């Protein structure tokens, strides 16, 4: 007999889907199940049950995606517990002496599970704020304050840490530092950061800042259209410098092998847009 397959998403995981799968594996039909972690729906279609992936709540195909069942808003663990919880309890504790006893344990465990999940979520969120969010805010603030030292236009900010989640902070910090009132010149974003530069081990990247926090698809300044989608030598020729890596087809992201090269590309983009 083929082993059952439980499907869930890949990438970062959370306690709700882990708990959901742990409960399923208490049941006879899933006790020795294999776990498939991906987002390819063709592959997931081969699974016996899906948890926290698939985008639907459908008992007929055993797809348990959270927050989609009418009138009941539950996490993936909550959905699994709601539909399999009594069987899980019976598998763990054996058959209880009455339905009332089973119901009492079911309800008590429901609260305990919710408490454990809430506690875990609280601790995780606080740690994330202290360990990631707050240090990132300090890095972004320093980058904004020192941007005129990085380039005299004040329109290119350097962040000292690659992968820093700067978009979560830049708009608040612009207001906090009164950068929104520091525009210089006739152009709408003169003196304000339009590009953010970060450096990694292999390359340096320039990312265009969106116009505001509510419009993620519109950028303050785009890279020249003649650069769009080009890479390596072809991009070197279009830009006029060596060491270019790529420019995104939508012209909001570029990379160069060096920090100096990335800064040069940002300056050229500002010139092309009429800011310099």
UniProtKB/TrEMBL annotation:
It comes from the Eukaryota. GO terms for cellular component: cytoplasm; nucleus. Pfam families: MYG1_exonuc. Transmembrane segments: none annotated. PANTHER family: METAL DEPENDENT HYDROLASE - RELATED, MYG1 EXONUCLEASE. Belongs to the MYG1 family. This is Metal-dependent protein hydrolase. It comes from Dibothriocephalus latus (Fish tapeworm).
